[in-house]
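Throughout our pipeline, every protein is held as a single compact record rather than as scattered files. Such a record has a labelled line for the sequence and another for the backbone structure tokens. This encoding replaces a full spatial description with a residue-level series of whole-number codes. For reference, a complete record is included directly beneath this paragraph.
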Amino acid sequence: MSDPLLPSPSQDLKAPTNPPISQKPQPPALSSIEAAEAFSETLAFKATGNTYFSQSNWPLARSSYAQALALCPPIFNFDAAVIHSNIAAAWLKEEGWKDAVEEAGAGLTRLKKLGNDAGEKIEEEWDGQGGVGKKYAEEDVQRIKAKLLMRRAQARMRVGGWAALQGAEEDYKALETIPSLPEADARLVSRQLKRLPALITTAKETETAEMMGKLKDLGNGILKPFGLSTDNFKMTKDPSSGGYSMQFANGDNGGGSGK
């Protein structure tokens, strides 16, 4: 007699599966009233951050801006980009170069979410009155884009290193394409683009030399049990490609039998 509590052999036993992400409960969209309240609080925290910034209280400014971002409804990409730009500015004041790069990058990402409609408007967003109506002009978007690019470029210059300097050069080149860039900023962009190629070359050579030194140390550790060292091998740089070739050097300058 079979146990009624156990499944019969004919029954299909299937492991439980998780529902697709699309079927999982999603956070409810904000109602018009909730979005209005959230955006109002966003602007209040942003204003508080501006006050702290004007008082040179960078940590409290950043904290207020972060609270503003946390409350900002997702559709307000332009406003979020402005707040990211403010946080980047605060990090520059505190010499938090890598954090400034990250915040400026996040702001540029939010700007990319704006539409590219022809004409004066770039994006229409919910106007706080239950409909769509808040418009951003091309010149406003370009102005904030320029601030974000400038702040990220300045931070990347301070971070230094081959990759960061290349990134700074890309940012300054992007700034060159922005119309109506303030004259002082345009002069700075031109000056930095003249300096950067030499800085990038120096950084590349320095990092390449450091990498080769580490590879040499690693190679010596591997070759030592065989009575050899990397001095037994000649590295020749190809001037056209920048790569290296290696040949065994038959000489007594190797490190095989040290005293």
